[in-house]
Amino acid sequence: MSGRFESNTTQDPASRRGRRRRGNLADAASFNIHDALNVRTNVPIVPKLPEHFRVASVNPDLEVVSVPELTRPPEDSVRSTIGHPGTCDLGGGEVYYECPAPFLQYLSEKAAWRFLVRGLGDRETRITTAFPRFSVGPIGSRLRDLLSRIVYVAITMKLARKGVALCHASAVAKGDDACVIFGYGGTGKTTLTAALMRSVCDGYLSDDYSLVDKQGRVYCWPEYYPPHTEVSGSPGLRYVLGQYRSTREAPFPIRKRATVNTILFLERGPDGVEELDADGSARRLVLLNMEELWRLWNSPVSQILGQYSYFYPSLDLAEILREYTALTASFASRAPHAFVVRSRGASFRNAQDLLAQVLGGRRDEARP
Amino acid sequence: MTDARFMSSPGNLNGMPSATSRSRAWSHFDIHDLIRLRTNVQLTTVPRHFQVDRVEPNLEIEMVDHLDGFPATGPRRIVGFTTHQTEDEGLYFECEVPVFSLFGGEARWRFHVHGLTGDAARIVTALPFYEFRPVRFKARQLLSKLALLVIALKLIRGGYAGCHATTLARGDDAFLLFAYSGTGKSTIAASLMNAGYRFLSDDFTIVDPDGRVYCYPDWHAPRPTRMNVPLAKYLRKKPPFHQTGLPIGDRARVHSIFLLEGGPDHVEELDREEALRRVMLVNMAEVSKLWNSPLSPILNQYAYFYPDLDFDDIMMRYRSCMQSFIGRAEKYYSVRSKSPTFDNVPELISSLAGR
């Protein structure tokens, strides 16, 4: 367990052995996401929450705490259980959840992965987890990955309630004009983003997750992925080497906020540019975001959300999804331009040329 | 692979299994004339009850020996790493070979998908190392999930809905038990069958807006009796529910709906809205499980290329079908029981059925 997750621990050698100090709240890292959401966690989240959001301390809206041990609540304290091995409603907005530990279950290991969740439908949410014993090395990486997915889902839901939609897109800007770039993983977002930062654009907002609101504003999420391929070695090996969704700090000047000028949807194929109306743009935007949300949802931990909602109607998943969809549709309608750009080359030269014309143009037109 | 079983045997088209490809024999399934499936893959999500000699298929799932990969050039649209829109209004998709990829194998599992929203949906797939049992097991599992998702989509577009319930009937009265997996639905079903109830479904139930329930007899043995070494299931020959001799009922009308929980014994009547809310959540948990698969991008990306497949519309239709169906039930109960056998449920049901 070397310093792969050092951003979440301090630099002294003792805390680099993060696993042993799990549960020590002194290791907690605090993040303030554009004053819309405060997160505090002592678990390394992958991909990392941007250093840009790191603050000394917060009053958290979302707290994720790893503790050395959780035990199944005694039967007489449980109001109701559902499913197997049994999610327990403890009353007062508190739910106990457990699932078989990934990997370990294949060995018929009875070790359970345990959670205590409080206030998922409220402003202040706390997710407490006890990893199974033996969750070291690649198994530990896998568990942190699965946990991180649900943390990202929770962040997405909480931001949606605050009027901000987390989208699976890259964003760059020229002055205040933002270009938000959508594309299924592997189409070329990262490569194009880097190329744009070296040519047309002067402000970097995000590489994988963009925050948008219904007025058409784009907020930074400045994490940078080195361009990646679909399969880099065996998945098992990726966990062993800790290369899973690793990010770097962006090597570009960061811009905190900008206003959407153009939405791009990337495809590969014969070179072509096609302008979209707001509906066409919203339709694609929803599909591309859903793809990412489903990837995040794909974790044994995601059951917590549905089951919490079963016990506590204050967590209304359908309503959150409606809010989220309405937000993104409104955002799409605020963009002066939306295009599908198709290119054979990975560098998307035609997208770069297009943006050189479009970005910055609106302000000039507006001038008398 | 030069294994003889990998050689193409188009003779299968007439429905005659050839000696060298036992696992590739064609089967036909007629699911209440709503889904007519023709496939040469053993799908664990399609009950053998529906097997017939021959159908005019509206859904085909075929395993072939080989599909060509697409060249990177060519007049097509590509999204993601490898999903192509093909010229014949279809979709080409590829992903890693299950199990093999864990060890760094670079072989590709390939798909051609056509007409998902039409009357002739067709999924053709080629999977290297299919004859290796752990690969075949995992691949079947994933294909079975995909098949059930496509079946569910077709049902919704046809005005029906699939939901996650165990259904038993006496006469024309159907009793639907909803609960998260593992709560005890199958156990109750077993005891009600012993008491003379007919069996309609265990996990997946087809319903319509008029309150009708159509059987889907996908019997699973109650879970505690299953093997608890998960790796062993990769070596098992047969899907778990192929059990014969169940007293299967074909159709019935919804009488009442039960939502099961563990905990201190308690029975409570619910109003229609609360019943619908919980039923939708339980259904969502099951859809999540089906969707949690490396194959689900096929559906998302198909919708990206072909706006005909409109998930928004499908969700709306689904909700309104379920709402109308639930509205046809007489009573809604939340039942909590300390005992894993839910002894209070059969009692409650027989008192209702007696009326």
What does this structure look like?
- The complex is a heterodimer of chains A (368) and B (355).
- Chain A has 2 domains: 161 residues, no CATH class; 202 residues, Phosphoenolpyruvate Carboxykinase, domain 3.
- In chain A, 30% of the residues lie in helices and 27% in strands.
- Chain A is built from 9 helices and 20 strands.
- In chain A, the strands form 3 sheets. In chain A, strands 3-1-2-4-9-8-7-6-5 form a 9-stranded mixed β-sheet, covered by helices on one side. In chain A, strands 10, 11, 12, 13, 14, 15, 18, 19 and 20 form a 9-stranded mixed β-sheet that branches.
- In chain A, strand 8 and strand 9 form a beta hairpin.
- Chain B is an alpha+beta fold and 355 residues long.
- Chain B has 2 domains: 139 residues, no CATH class; 194 residues.
- Chain B has a 9-stranded mixed β-sheet. In chain B, strands 10, 11, 12, 13, 14, 15, 16, 17 and 18 form a 9-stranded mixed β-sheet that branches.
- At the A-B interface, strand 5, helix 4, helix 5, helix 6 and helix 7 of A face strand 5, strand 16, helix 3 and helix 4 of B.
Task: Summarize the helices and strands and which ones pair or pack.
The complex is a heterodimer of chains A (about 375) and B (about 350).
Chain A: H1 13-16, E1 29-33, E2 37-41, E3 54-55, E4 62-66, E5 80-82, E6 87-91, E7 94-100, E8 112-118, E9 125-130, H2 137-161, E10 164-168, E11 170-174, E12 177-182, H3 189-198, E13 203-206, E14 209-213, E15 217-219, E16 223-224, H4 235-241, E17 248-249, E18 257-268, E19 272-275, H5 278-297, H6 303-311, H7 317-334, E20 337-343, H8 349-358, H9 361-366
Parallel strand pairs in A: 2-4, 4-9, 12-18, 18-20
Antiparallel strand pairs in A: 1-2, 1-3, 5-6, 6-7, 7-8, 8-9, 10-14, 11-12, 11-13, 14-15, 15-18, 16-17, 19-20
Chain B: E1 27-31, E2 35-39, E3 51-52, E4 59-64, E5 78-79, E6 83-86, E7 90-96, E8 108-114, E9 121-126, H1 133-157, E10 161-163, E11 165-170, E12 173-178, H2 185-194, E13 198-201, E14 205-207, E15 212-214, E16 251-262, E17 266-269, H3 272-291, H4 297-305, H5 311-327, E18 331-337, H6 344-354
Parallel strand pairs in B: 2-4, 4-9, 12-16, 16-18
Antiparallel strand pairs in B: 1-2, 1-3, 5-6, 6-7, 7-8, 8-9, 10-14, 11-12, 11-13, 14-15, 15-16, 17-18
